[in-house]
Amino acid sequence: MTPILRLLGLMKPYRRYLLIGLVALVLSTPAQLFHPLVWKFIIDDVVTKHQPHLLVPALLVMFGVHLVGAALSAVRTYALGVGTQRLACDLRNQLYARVQAHSMQFFHERRSGDLIARLVGDVDSVQEVLNSLVEVLNSALQFVMVAAILIYLDWRIGLLTLLPMAGVFGLVMLFNNRIRDLYRRVRDRLGDVSAKLSENLLGVLVIKAFAREEAEAQRFSVENERYLHESLRGVTARTIYFPSVFTVGFLSSVAMIGVGAQRAMAGALSVGSIMAFSRYWWQLFQPVYSLATTNEMVQRANAAASRIFELLDAPLEITDAPDALELAEARGALSLRGVSFTYPERDQTLTELDLVVPAGASIGVVGPSGAGKSTLVALLLRLYDPQAGQILVDGHDLRAVTQTSLRRHYGVVTQEPFLFNASVRHNIAYAAGEAGDEQIIEAARQANAHDFIEALPEGYDTVVGERGVKLSGGQKQRICIARAFLANPAILLLDEATAAVEPESEAIIQSALERLMAHRTSVTISHRLSMVRGCDQIAVICDGRLAQLGRHDELMAQDGWYQRMYRLQMGGGELQG
Fold first, then answer.
1. Cβ(7)–Cβ(130) under 8 Å?
2. Distance (Å, rounded) from C-alpha 89 to C-alpha 307?
3. Are 303 and 186 in contact (CB under 8 A)?
4. Element spanning 533, H or E
5. What residue ranges do the domains of the chain occupy?
6. Using an 8 Å Cβ cutoff, are 498 and 510 in contact?
7. pLDDT tier, 365 (very low <50, low <70, confident <90, very high otherwise)
8. Burial of 514: CB neighbours in 10 Å, binned 0-12, 13-18, 19+
9. Based on the number of CB atoms within 10 Å of its own CB, is 440 exposed (0-12), middle (13-18) or buried (19 or more)?
10. What is the C-alpha separation between 30 and 119, in angstroms, rounded?
């Protein structure tokens, strides 16, 4: 099934609008074609036969039919417009929901700018052509009716007028074959431009810090030139196509005028009929030309629709099992049994990892960069599934419970605090859905954030800017901790929670984290061993394997990675091996 036909299938929920629009279309088209017949009557019967008393009634009839046609056209435009607008809205919602349902692997393999281009630009193109398809139906109906009228007035002239139109349809088919793949490449190049623009806007600080503005402008120009190149090929095709269509179509006008004049001079055709023919020629050619121009839009939308359905049809990497349980309550006991995981096209990240964390206990996870520590957090959240082994929460395999109910019991604080471009209040309450002011303020107090929030220009109603740009790193992190407090999770995941904050904020954040960790299961990922020294147990992961496991004093008594790194960080030794 072609993408356009699939799009039409999505119109089913709005068939009421579609039916009203089509009925109005069928009824309005004859009204639009009635006027030339009135002109013929006025010339042949009123003027030629000197019957002036018929002039006003004829004009009133013509005006009345016009009003009926205009009203029906308004109904058609509104009904079909509402239907296509609602379809575009639903399609964008479906796309967003589908994209959000994918695992992190999906996002790692795709560029955010291209995804945005598909959700916004491609859907807009689809909506545009759905509106145009209405005009296609109108044009097709108008063409059939005008052809019938021309043949009724004089079948010889009618057939001669219609003959060149076959050449127009041939040009349409030829254009389709040439332009289909071209417009897909144009949409892809536009996705590349969007992706590069999105990347550079997010990385503007790095670009400026290293004075790479000129280099990045050049790279953006390269992507833009590629898009321009494909777009200009489309311009060339249209430059040849549309004048050719008009020229071939105009032959029918020449033929009609020539033969009509000869028959009129021979007395076989009235002057009024010639007038009607001349008026009907444009009403015959206009729908043909409209079909030609709309066809070009259809090909563009077909390319956009194929990109949309690529997203909708992309299989989900992680799904809930049909019999998945709702994890209503959680104590927070974690267990990893022989867990192995590998990212696509990379070496194995975790190998046969075994860990047990009792409910309410704390575990620190340390090791060299790239050892797989942050991957462990992603697996616990079930952002990925391990290729081997099991991960259990309170004895339930993560794959046996729904993703939503599982993540409801987690609180996450990451190295890079993310805030929405909204108020402080909204960002704190984000994890809890609805929360009262007292709850939000108490969570902020627990996170050592209340005082600085109160000092902001509008307090809790201060908008923090995109990604919290109006706040310092430590302030953003404390708001994220307040968010975790308000969520009141059974399991807390801390992934380098203090790595990116300024030194004067670290102690404040550390005390807030200690309060947050109390009486709940916690997994702390950190390069700073001082952050995990007080944990109930510490796991050292090297090269994806569990190298050491024990309390701080136990690991310090062993000649291993932990002892050497701790002494190096505390200034009491050198890292060896």
1. yes
2. 17
3. yes
4. none
5. 3-195+229-313
6. yes
7. very high
8. exposed
9. buried
10. 39
Decide: 367 and 526 in contact? Cβ < 8 Å.
Answer: no
Q: Which residue has the tokens 């995109």?
A: 466
Cα–Cα distance for residue pair 528/522, rounded to 1 Å: 16
Q: Which residues contact 307 (CB under 8 A, 6 or more apart)?
A: 118, 122, 184, 187, 188, 191
pLDDT, mean of residues 411-415: 83
Give the 3-state secondary structure of residue 341.
Answer: strand
**Closest Cα to residue 300, out of 202, 391, 187?**
187
**Contact residues for 212 (Cβ-Cβ < 8 A; gap 6+):** 206
pLDDT value of position 159: 74
Q: In which residue are the tokens 């296609």 written?
A: 136
Which CA distances in Å does 232 have to 27, 181, 544?
A: 41, 14, 51
Tokens of 72: 């029906």
DSSP code, position 181: H
The residue type at 89: C
Give the angle subtended at the CA of 509 by the CAs of 504 and 513, to the nearest 5°: 160
**Structural element, H or E, at residue 542:** strand 537-542
Torsion sign, CA atoms 111, 116, 119, 123: negative
Domain 3-195+229-313 class in CATH: mainly alpha
DSSP alpha helix (H) spans, 357-502: 373-380, 403-407, 424-429, 437-446, 450-454, 473-487
Q: Which two tokens stand for residue 466?
A: 């995109």
Give CA 529 to chain center in angstroms.
41
Taking the C-alpha atoms of residue 384 and residue 105, their distance in angstroms, rounded to an integer, is 7
Mean pLDDT for the chain? 80
For 219-271, the pLDDT digits (tens) are 888 888 888 888 888 777 767 766 776 676 666 667 667 776 777 777 776 66
Nearest residue to 165 (alpha-carbon basis) of 260, 251, 293: 251
Q: What are phi and psi of 138, to 5 degrees?
A: -60, -45
Taking alpha carbons only, the member of 456, 125, 174 closest to residue 298 is: 125
Which residue(s) pair with 401 in the sheet?
325
Phi, psi at 449, each rounded to 5°: -115, -15
Residue 313 and residue 337 in contact, taking contact as beta carbons nearer than 8 Å: no
Where b means 16+ CB within 10 Å and e means fewer, 104-120 reads ebbeeebbebbbebbbe
CB count in 10 Å sphere of residue 166? 9
Residue 292 banded pLDDT, cuts 50, 70, 90: low
Q: Give the residue from 438, 440, 461, 458 showing the smallest Cα distance to 449.
A: 440
Q: So what's the pLDDT on residue 400?
A: 92
Which amino acid, one-letter code, is at 573? G
User: In the sheet that 388-393 helps form, which strands lie side by side, from edge to edge?
Assistant: 348-357, 334-342, 388-393, 396-397
Residue 553 CB-density burial (10 A; 0-12 exposed, 13-18 middle, 19+ buried):
exposed
